[in-house]
Recover the amino acids of this structure.
């Protein structure tokens, strides 16, 4: 099976290593069912990542990238095409994802694929861009455990730009009180959350959130020392840029 994204990025999904899926069109693919239910999310995510990648490319020459949660490598393909990094480390602990990363990116110059727990990986050299595409994340994760904080500390110490996916927007209305308690401020809107989150990051690391692009289920935050405050926040609704191409 192949996934075609934004009409120009192709991801080949290799044969499943675990239990076979019997969906008629996508027999033998581990992610067919999963992907079918997520086409609109993946479309929005890819559109936003491409937008942000172009924005970074205008500001800075990106030589090194680390992606902590590589997944299928959709974002990796976008970074490769636009930024053409010299070194691109991509981590994922899932065997099927890792196999997909290897199929699609394994033979590219400068790409290093790691099949391990990303939260145990420590940088010891500068990177231009660190991308943290979590399955689920909000500011609450930063306040969680000492080992998570040490991991974040390491990332902020070595990275020029940090791009984080934040899923809090999906259930924001249910969690306002939790954020109010954390920040000890009035939080009525997602803008309030961003502003407090940005000040929180500035207090901890000297970095601010410069851009926030989102759709209904997830936002992507571009964070760097060079930003003094939020430059732009924008909502996207780009549901139709992903196609599954069956293989039988
Ligand atoms: C939201 S997906 C990333 C999607 C990816 N950006 C793409 O373009 O396909 C998150 C990925 O993180 C991986 N993951 C979650 N926790 C991890 C961990 N602690 N270490 C390594 N990988 C992890 C999951 O296996 C999953 O593939």
């Amino acid at each position: 099976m192949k996934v075609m994204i934004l009409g120009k990025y192709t991801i080949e999904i290799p044969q499943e290593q675990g239990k076979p899926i019997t969906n008629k069109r996508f027999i033998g693919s581990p992610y067919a069912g999963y992907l079918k239910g997520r086409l609109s999310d993946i479309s929005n995510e890819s559109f936003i990542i491409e937008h942000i990648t172009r924005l970074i490319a205008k500001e800075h020459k990106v030589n090194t990238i680390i992606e902590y949660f590589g997944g299928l490598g959709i974002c990796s393909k976008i970074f490769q095409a636009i930024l053409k990094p010299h070194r691109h480390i991509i981590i994922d602990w899932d065997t099927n994802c890792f196999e997909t990363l290897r199929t699609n990116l394994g033979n590219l110059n400068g790409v290093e694929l790691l099949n391990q727990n990303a939260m145990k990986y420590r940088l010891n050299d500068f990177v231009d861009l660190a991308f943290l595409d979590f399955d689920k994340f909000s500011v609450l994760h930063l306040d969680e455990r000492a080992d998570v904080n040490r991991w974040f500390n390491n990332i902020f110490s070595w990275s020029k730009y940090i791009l984080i996916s934040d899923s809090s927007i999906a259930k924001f209305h249910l969690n306002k009180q939790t954020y109010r308690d954390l920040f000890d401020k009035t939080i009525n809107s997602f803008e309030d959350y961003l502003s407090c989150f940005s000040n929180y990051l500035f207090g901890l690391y000297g970095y601010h959130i410069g851009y926030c692009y989102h759709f209904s289920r997830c936002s992507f935050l571009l964070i760097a020392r060079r930003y003094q405050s939020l430059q732009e926040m924008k909502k996207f609704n780009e549901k139709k840029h992903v196609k599954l191409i069956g293989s039988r």
Notes: The chain has a mean pLDDT of 92.
